[in-house]
Design a protein that fits this description.
InterPro entries (chain B): VWF_A, vWFA_dom_sf
Helix content of chain A: 25-40%
CATH superfamily of chain B: von Willebrand factor, type A domain
Strand content of chain A: 25-35%
Oligomer: heterodimer
Strand order of the largest sheet of chain A: 1-12-11-7-8
Organism (chain B): Paenibacillus taihuensis
Protein name (chain A): Protein phosphatase 2C-like protein
Radius of gyration of chain B: 18 Å
Domain VWFA (chain B): 13-237
CATH class of chain B: Alpha Beta
Number of helices of chain B: 7
CATH architecture of chain B: 3-Layer(aba) Sandwich
Radius of gyration of chain A: 18 Å
Order of helices and strands of chain B: EEEHEEEEEHEEHEHEEEEHHEH
Largest sheet of chain B: 8 strands, mixed
Number of strands of chain A: 12
Number of domains of chain B: 1
CATH topology of chain B: Rossmann fold
Number of strands of chain B: 16
Low-confidence stretches of chain A: none
CATH class of chain A: Alpha Beta
Protein name (chain B): von Willebrand factor type A domain-containing protein
Number of domains of chain A: 1
Chain lengths: 257, 276
């Protein structure tokens, strides 16, 4: 068994590429008779500062194996210190100081696969905070979705992981965990909220969206899809794809080594 | 309606109208009405600036104007902003007249609050002078917004925040407020919100009422009737973040209360539920 991965991303239309505040990370640890693969995305909240840095710390922290869903505060603690170290000690205007003291905020969705090198299935477990999602796709069907499963689940005010510990007091109640078994041939898609919501909208109308994403053959095709779907208007009057940073990790579990 | 994206290329506009008339020197609580007005406008501007702050600086999501009325009617900023009708929010951020230090309650991480010393920007000092030409102030606002809307027809419509003790001396402002609310962009009508500072003995603290039943006097009722209904998104934020129980028909009117909610409920992207 092996896992093929592609990562696509695009900033919000109207923003520069250095203003993109999502993050993604991938890691593979090959051991003697098993492999551990971790994948994570994070979406820094636009109403906070240094959110890109925080999202990167969370996604990479997950892929370095530092996350345990049952003790989220302990997992986040060294990352808070890293964020504070990188953002502290600067002379800032009053508003930047105030914003900094509130901390940055970000979602996190991560999934870990463990499998023997000659296996045809893999155990997986995932965690999520906020509205970044992971979809388990089998054939042309969304087999399961995590942690959100309907368009109505996407609000604009989720509880997120903060780089200021004082804002994380109730965080443990918002950590979602997931586990299961995947088979060779299955796909897993990690998507930040705008894209995840778009997928569920399109899927409800027509399952062909699955084939469309499976067949995306590179960054150019992804960019074209995003631009097109941001322009297309849904019958409810809004764009099919909300204008936001978008990040997509596409995984395929494949037989063989 | 009220769904246009607010961004640097599609900014929106917030126009404050503040009562600086002689009656504002009346005592109010532990201070005066004029101190309540200056405190309210400084706090609203502070919230708006912080909302637009990012690591690299301020993003100009809003153009902001402040019209004062009392001895005269016109742009109320002082210092380098004096005389300007409308400026990008970054210019306001960079030009407070002074920075005070104040204690602010912040979460302590254990479901409690602790005091933290923060810099509090001051753009406006208390002013109380002259009559209360509220109708003229509304007409001035109409002229300023007509010009702004002419340039930004597709943008989220302007929000007007009017802070007053309500005692107009140049007539009933009902028609002028109606004309202001009738202005519109392609995304909806101008939103007019009123903050009434009242020393009426029967005035209680009231936020976003759906009827005029609990209002203490005619001044309150005129301002209530002149206020726009809150948008659906604002009602959602009020109920989810401020633990209010508002339904359709809640008016953008508060009596002796804080209007910060309408600033927090302007949607410029993901706002975490645990950001306070």
């Amino acid at each position: 068994m092996r896992i093929e991965s592609d990562c696509f991303s695009l900033p919000k239309a109207g923003n520069r590429s250095d203003e993109y505040e999502d993050a993604s990370h991938i890691s593979t640890h090959v051991q003697k008779d098993a492999t551990i693969c971790r994948f994570a995305i994070a979406d820094g909240a636009s109403e906070s500062s240094y959110a890109d840095l925080w999202a990167n710390l969370l996604a990479s922290g997950y892929c370095f194996g530092r996350f345990d869903g049952t003790t989220i505060h302990k997992s986040v603690s060294p990352l808070l210190k890293a964020w504070q170290k990188k953002t502290g000690g600067k002379s800032l205007p009053w508003y930047a100081q105030e914003k900094l003291s509130s901390g940055a905020f970000s979602t996190l969705a991560g999934i870990t696969f463990r499998f023997a090198n000659d296996a045809e299935s893999a155990a997986f477990d995932g965690i999520a905070v906020g509205d970044s999602c992971i979809f388990h796709v089998r054939g042309d069907t969304v087999f399961s979705s995590f942690p959100l499963s309907t368009v109505d689940d996407f609000g604009r005010r989720p509880v997120l992981i903060s780089s200021n510990a004082a804002n994380n007091a109730r965080l443990h109640a918002f950590v979602h965990q997931w586990s299961g078994t995947a088979e060779a041939g299955d796909a897993f898609w990690l998507m930040t909220d705008a894209l995840a919501c778009w997928l569920l909208t399109r899927y409800k109308e027509d399952r062909s969206v699955i084939r469309r994403l499976l067949e995306l053959d590179g960054a150019r095709a992804f960019n074209h899809l995003v631009h097109e779907e941001r322009q297309l208007i849904h019958r409810k009057g809004h764009a099919y794809l909300r204008n936001d940073d978008v990040t997509f990790i596409r995984l395929k579990l494949v037989k063989g080594t | 309606m009220y769904s246009a994206e607010i961004s640097r290329s599609n900014p929106s506009c917030i126009l404050f109208i503040i009562d600086q008339s002689g009656s504002m020197s009346d005592p109010f609580g532990a201070s005066t009405k004029s101190e309540s007005v200056s405190d309210a406008i400084n706090r609203l501007l502070q919230n708006l600036v912080i909302k637009c702050a990012k690591s690299e600086g301020i993003r100009d999501y809003y153009h902001v104007g402040v019209i004062g009325y009392g001895a005269g009617v016109g742009p109320a900023f002082g210092g380098v902003l004096a005389g300007k009708e409308m400026v990008p929010i970054s210019e306001i951020a960079d030009n407070p007249s002074k920075l005070d230090k104040r204690l602010k309650k912040v979460p302590d991480g254990a479901s409690g609050l602790v005091d933290q010393l923060v810099k509090f920007p001051v753009w406006f000092e208390p002013v109380a002078n002259g009559g209360t030409p509220m109708c003229e102030a509304m007409r001035t606002a109409h002229a300023v917004l007509t010009q702004w809307i002419g340039e930004y027809t597709q943008c989220f419509p302007p929000v007007v925040i009017h802070i007053t003790d309500g005692e107009s001396t140049d007539g009933d402002p009902t028609v002028e407020m109606e004309q202001l609310r009738a202005l519109s962009t392609d995304d909806g009508n101008v939103l007019l919100f009123n903050l009434h500072i009242s020393d009426s003995p029967s005035a209680v603290e009231l936020r976003f009422p759906e009827t005029a039943d609990a209002l203490p006097d005619t001044y309150s009722r005129v301002l209530y009737e002149g206020s726009s209904p809150l948008t659906q998104f604002m009602i959602q934020v009020a109920n989810q973040e401020y633990d209010l129980n508002l339904s359709d028909g809640a008016r953008g009117f508060v009596l002796n209360a804080d209007l910060t909610l309408v600033i927090q409920a302007l949607d410029i992207g993901t706002r975490p539920a645990n950001l306070r």
